[in-house]
Task: inverse folding
């Protein structure tokens, strides 16, 4: 009998709901913000030298919170320079939220925004069909390579679009927690080719084999998953959906698989108990790739 389990990505609205709850319960954006404040100025120190316009490509830009922070750092480094910011994002809901963030933000007068409702692969296909290969001064891919089918080919393509002083910034999970969860139970999840587990370690191997030069930064992060252990808790069910990339995991997973996942999440390899809370290790890596 076919499993009733389906990928979370078949329901974009629930995916976005689960993702927003994940951001609310995790320190993901806080640790990224700290990186943007402390390390990004050095990363972008030369991308706009001698240029009147800086071209920035955001691949999988989501609702734009990190994009606007990145743009503010580029503005600070290159005051008065025009910034052309193009966004590739497949979710109409996320683009709508991005536009809301732009409407509320100040100091964006030198920035031109263009949104493309498409995946990284669709963007590449469209550019190839139109025989275009626009060059970029800064490209970033934040937490989106899990949804790319051919990661080496995608990186090769976007790396080929870098200007001589440009940088390609990628953010991925680095910790053992996701690896433990997905390596032990991933084959039970209904990925349907929509999602791939990749960590910074396996990504580094891809870059090494391609002969690309890069720098690696580690960002400690965690997520409060206490509600996952409360039967029937709506937030807990949403977080389990996010952790397993499975739509309505609590309702559709076989009882034994659900028991195993709950057990796995409690283990020291995944989480730690602190102040009465269960905190899932959500450590990240920032990889900055040279042209």
Result:
């Amino acid at each position: 009998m076919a499993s009733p389990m389906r990928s979370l990505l078949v329901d974009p609205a629930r995916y976005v709901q689960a993702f927003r709850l994940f951001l609310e319960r995790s320190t993901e954006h806080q640790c990224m913000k700290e990186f943007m404040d402390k390390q990004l100025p050095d990363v972008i120190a030369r991308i706009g030298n001698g240029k009147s316009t800086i071209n920035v490509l955001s691949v999988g830009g989501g609702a734009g919170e990190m994009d606007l922070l990145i743009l503010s750092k580029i503005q600070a480094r290159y005051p008065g320079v025009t910034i052309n910011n193009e966004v590739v994002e497949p979710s109409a809901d996320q683009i709508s939220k991005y536009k809301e963030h732009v409407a509320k933000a100040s100091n964006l007068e030198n920035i031109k925004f263009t949104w493309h409702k498409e995946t990284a692969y669709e963007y590449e296909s469209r550019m190839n069909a139109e025989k275009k290969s626009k060059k970029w001064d800064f490209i970033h891919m934040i937490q989106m390579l899990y949804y790319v089918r051919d990661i080496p080919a995608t990186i090769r393509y976007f790396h080929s679009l870098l200007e001589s002083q440009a940088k390609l910034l990628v953010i991925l999970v680095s910790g053992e927690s996701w690896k433990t969860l997905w390596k032990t139970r991933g084959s039970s999840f209904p990925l349907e080719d929509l999602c791939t587990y990749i960590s910074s370690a396996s990504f580094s191997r891809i870059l090494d084999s391609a002969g690309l030069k890069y720098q690696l930064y580690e960002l400690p992060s965690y997520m409060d998953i206490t509600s996952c252990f409360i039967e029937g808790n709506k937030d807990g069910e949403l977080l389990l959906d996010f952790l397993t990339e499975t739509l309505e995991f609590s309702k559709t997973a076989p009882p034994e698989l659900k028991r195993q996942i709950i057990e796995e999440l409690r283990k020291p390899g995944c989480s730690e108990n602190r102040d009465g809370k269960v905190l899932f290790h959500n450590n990240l890596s920032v990889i900055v790739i040279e042209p």
